[in-house]
Q: What sequence folds into this?
């Protein structure tokens, strides 16, 4: 290939951008180390695998793949509207909720604006902000989580959007309903608040914020949800936002009409009715969380209390080395040094046996000293 550097041609915000670092795929580690039976606890995926009901629906849907998907996602939107008590015109569908987050930034934020998010918050927020050439304002975290008072105080005349992840990834930290509500009351309506609730289903029902119902009171609030975690559809890409109809209207103008494909539309629709699968996933997560916490306590390892489907453990200064040693033992977890957590590793909760493989590997590594 001839010598050529496209940097000067790339948009200013893109020039210094680093690509999203995904969890290492199982196949990649197999290729690299020539090992089998790998346990991946790196991407907060649902260890149950796809729900049998969804699988059956997908098999039927395959027959129609020569046709374009429904660009308006009518049936999925109708299902979401029914379950969440909203109107269909409040819903924006996304190719995963990352798509929704990017769509929000591209619709409402320009290079004249700034966007507020928390230190240690989901990396997609700074990424979409930077891509647009907007200014990102990372507010220092409090106990690894969002400091909402400091975030409210950071609002200035340039602020157009605030991202909040609740629970947050990669820390698992959680904001109460009362804290969130008080925050929303402080934010002027010309600042959009994106409440990313990717792990909502893992939070005990009694503690969940009635966030969707708040949209009627706060037209600047957008709630995003995903099918990638508790619903077990990470590979299909399905997510959505619930907002004021006017917000959805503008997002819809730049949304790619077929951003959700026929299979993901169908799978998400069926998954929403598969209450047994969801309950099983949540219960399995609860047990796995207890299993990992017991391991941490047994070995005096600090961890960040988590409401998600993962636990971020403080393994020490040699976190990068431990990560590599785990790989050699066939266990993939997630380094989080890029989130300013260089002493931690994030471990997704897997099946009981998978968690046990991780625990055994860690015990062996810790014993090596
Ligand atoms: C996993 C995750 C998402 C969801 O990503 P998808 O694009 O829906 O797969 C969104 N926000 C946070 C904080 C996440 O951890």
A:
């Amino acid at each position: 290939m001839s010598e050529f550097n496209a940097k000067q041609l790339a948009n200013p915000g893109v020039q210094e951008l680093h690509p999203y670092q995904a969890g290492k795929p199982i196949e990649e580690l197999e290729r690299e180390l020539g090992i089998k039976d790998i346990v991946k606890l790196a991407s907060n995926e649902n260890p149950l695998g796809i729900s049998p009901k969804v699988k059956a629906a997908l098999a039927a849907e395959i027959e129609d793949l020569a046709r374009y998907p429904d660009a308006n996602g009518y049936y999925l939107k109708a299902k979401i509207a029914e379950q969440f008590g909203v109107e269909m015109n409040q819903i924006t569908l996304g190719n995963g909720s990352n798509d929704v987050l990017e769509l929000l930034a591209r619709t409402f934020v320009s290079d004249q604006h700034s966007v507020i998010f928390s230190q240690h918050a989901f990396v997609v927020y700074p990424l979409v902000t930077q891509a647009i050439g907007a200014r990102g304002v990372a507010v220092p975290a409090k106990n690894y989580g969002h400091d909402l008072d400091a975030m409210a105080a950071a609002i200035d005349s340039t602020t157009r959007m605030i991202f909040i992840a609740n629970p947050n990834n990669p820390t698992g930290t959680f904001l109460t309903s009362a804290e969130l509500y008080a925050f929303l009351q402080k934010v002027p309506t010309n600042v959009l608040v994106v409440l990313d609730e990717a792990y909502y289903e893992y939070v005990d029902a009694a503690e969940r914020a009635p966030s969707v119902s708040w949209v009627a009171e706060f037209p600047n609030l957008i709630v995003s949800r995903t099918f990638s975690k508790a619903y077990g559809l990470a590979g299909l890409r399905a997510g959505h936002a619930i907002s004021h109809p006017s917000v959805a209207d503008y997002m819809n103008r730049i949304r790619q009409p077929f951003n959700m494909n026929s299979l993901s539309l169908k799978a998400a629709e069926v998954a929403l009715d598969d209450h047994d699968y969801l309950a099983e996933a949540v219960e399995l997560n609860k047990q796995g969380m207890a299993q990992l916490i017991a391991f941490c306590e047994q070995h005096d390892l600090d961890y960040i209390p988590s409401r998600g489907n993962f636990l971020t453990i403080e393994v020490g200064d040699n976190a990068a080395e431990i990560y590599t040693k785990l790989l050699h033992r066939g266990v993939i977890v997630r380094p989080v040094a890029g989130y300013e957590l260089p002493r931690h590793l994030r471990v997704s909760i897997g099946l009981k046996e998978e968690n046990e493989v991780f625990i055994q590997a860690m015990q062996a590594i810790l014993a090596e000293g």
